[in-house]
Amino acid sequence: MTPALKLKMASRMRTRGRYNSSELYAITHGWVTPEDWLHPKDKEVEDILNMWAGTGLHNQLEDLMGKKYSEEKKVFSYKDINLVGKVDFLPPNNPNEVWEFKTSKNLMRTMKPWAEHQIKLYTTMFEKDIGKVYQPVQNKNGIFLKDIGTVNRDDRWFDLEMAKLYEFHEKVEKLWVA
After folding, report:
1. pTM score of the predicted model
2. Are 109 and 140 in contact (CB under 8 A)?
3. What are the domain boundaries of the chain?
């Protein structure tokens, strides 16, 4: 079954000028080189299993909270590139908020820096004032969302992040045509 799971969770083929919001922190912090982005390495089995488990939990949350408000995709254009984001939840009772769910085997006290970065991107992309990050937690009393962080929209910060992405894109372009 492992080969089938590896195939299912493999990285998608790259599309020229199209970047995912979930990768932007790694790009802007130098964790991913243009070469790595163009030719991603195969994921480790442990990482694939964690992603698969997280996907399952996200699907369960969609069932409980409403698919109508879940996994909305937005494409933000900047110069000749696109940043694609897929937010976990747009709460109908809190129309000025955007929510992201982060799954982990360990109970988190606060959001990780890359989660903060992603939800901050989403506030601008989805035109919301507040971004919240929750960890779904299950215990003997049931399931609940643990608040692990909140950010406010900052369009100036977003513009600076897009400029960093564009610098990265220009390096990718040189490799793409080579």
Report:
1. 0.91
2. no
3. 2-177
The 10s digit of each residue's pLDDT in 8-29 is 666 777 899 999 999 999 999 9
Q: Which two tokens stand for residue 12?
A: 């998608």
* First-last CA distance in the chain: 38
Q: Are strands 130-139 and 142-152 parallel, antiparallel or unpaired?
A: antiparallel
Count other C-beta atoms under 10 Å from residue 94's C-beta.
14
**φ and ψ at residue 90, rounded to 5 degrees:** -115, 100
Look at the domain 2-177 and name its fold. Lambda Exonuclease; Chain A (3.90.320)
Contacts of 70 (CB under 8 A, 6+ apart): 61, 62, 88, 89, 90
Q: For 13-52, give the secondary structure using H, E and C.
A: CCCCCEEEHHHHHHHHCCCCCHHHHHCCCCCCHHHHHHHH
Which residue bears the tokens 């933000």?
Answer: 76
What is the rounded distance in angstroms from the CA atom of residue 28 to the CA atom of residue 12?
Answer: 20
